[in-house]
Write a structure and sequence with these properties.
It is built from 14 helices and 13 strands. By secondary structure, it is α/β, with parallel strands linked by helices. It is globular and about 65 Å long.
């Protein structure tokens, strides 16, 4: 598929795509500028630039072209009364489309199938799926199945083998959070997976624009009205993934259990005594007897437990990826030590598993 067509298709599934994502799809800054200029001049797209948020939307000519070339992938997003076909100008509705668009683009760049022609039907059994391959489904692909989840903040669902993840995106601000609605969202996904004969553990992935926003989520108390996100009991695990290039490795680990287990066992090689107790916070101890904490998955509940334990132990080693070190050092403090895992080396190692 030509890069220009990929851009148009991504705008189609997004409704309104944040302008800064175009370069991630096209490539170089200069080539992106040339493509955008041509598409605007030829009447395929238009630009919205209000309230400090800039985005691209398809014009009628662009919709006709995408439907003629990629009907299977675009029809459900560009026909009827769906929000991606009739994009509203209200800032809250625009920002919801921006959140969903950032998930679409990030997972596409990570190699997760997002287009309908490239992935199995939603909630099919693993035998129908073939190999239980990872795939992502945006909220418009399933919210019509029930009215019970229409108010959920979820952007979509990522399914892979025995695991399922409900994806949220915060942008750079704390997102609204209604426990009752999100509990219904989890129950809906679990129920549909069970009906398809594919029992899956459903966790949550919170995405954000920066790695620094991790601390905001960890320290959130839900706000004065209690309607903002905070770590609660709806999901057993909440993973934070910043939508930056380096964090692609977190997606790969979440969607491939063999690689996830392989990396964990490899890293246990630095331990003198691996942990054996159930619910033990540390992975084990090093040669000096100090606890070692594996924090590279950025699972929020685990990070909270690590901070609590460090509060009274006052010693330990944090194991994390290079791009995570500075923010974890800020959160846990400099009293403990840190060991960086080089992302590039891990990617090479995982490819060999």
């Amino acid at each position: 598929m030509r890069k220009q067509d990929t851009l148009l298709l991504m705008i189609a599934v997004s409704g309104e795509m944040p302008a800064d994502l175009a370069e991630h799809i096209i490539g170089s800054v200069s080539y992106t500028a040339a493509v955008i200029t041509r598409l605007k001049q030829e009447g395929y797209i238009s630009v919205r630039n209000k309230a400090g948020y800039k985005g691209y939307v398809l014009r009628a000519k662009g919709k006709r072209y995408v439907l003629s070339q990629y009907s299977e992938d675009a029809a459900s997003f560009l026909q009827g009364s769906v929000e991606t076909n009739h994009v509203k100008t209200e800032i809250e509705k625009r920002l919801r489309l921006h959140r969903m668009s950032k998930v679409w683009v990030f997972l596409w760049k990570t190699g997760i199938p997002i287009f309908r022609s490239q992935k199995p039907e939603l909630f099919c059994s693993d035998s129908e799926n073939g190999r239980g391959q990872a795939a992502y489904y945006g909220s418009l692909e399933f919210k019509g199945l029930t009215d019970a989840i229409k108010g959920s903040r979820a952007c979509g669902i990522m399914l892979s083998g025995e695991s399922g993840y409900i994806i949220y995106h915060t942008l750079a601000q704390k997102m609204r959070w209604a426990k009752k609605m999100e509990r219904s969202m989890r129950s809906f996904v679990e129920r549909e997976c069970m009906k398809a004969g594919a029992l899956k553990r459903i966790d949550a992935v919170i995405m954000g624009d920066t790695i620094e926003f991790l601390v905001e989520l960890l320290e959130s108390d839900g706000g004065i009205k209690g309607n903002l996100f905070q770590v609660d009991d709806i999901y057993e695990n909440y993973y934070y993934i910043p939508t930056i290039e380096s964090a692609k490795i977190q997606v790969k680990l979440l969607t491939d259990k063999e690689k996830q287990i392989g990396l964990y066992r490899f890293l246990c090689g630095i331990l003198e005594q691996p942990g054996t107790r159930e619910y033990q916070v540390s992975a084990g101890t090093d040669q000096t007897g100090n606890p070692v904490y594996f924090c590279y998955e950025l699972e929020l509940r685990h990070l909270l437990r690590v901070k609590q334990e460090l509060g009274w132990k006052k010693q330990g080693t944090i194991l994390c990826f290079s791009y995570q070190k500075s923010i974890l050092e800020y959160y846990f403090g400099k009293e403990v030590s840190y060991r960086e895992i080089l992302t590039e080396k891990v990617m090479e190692y995982l490819e060999g598993l």
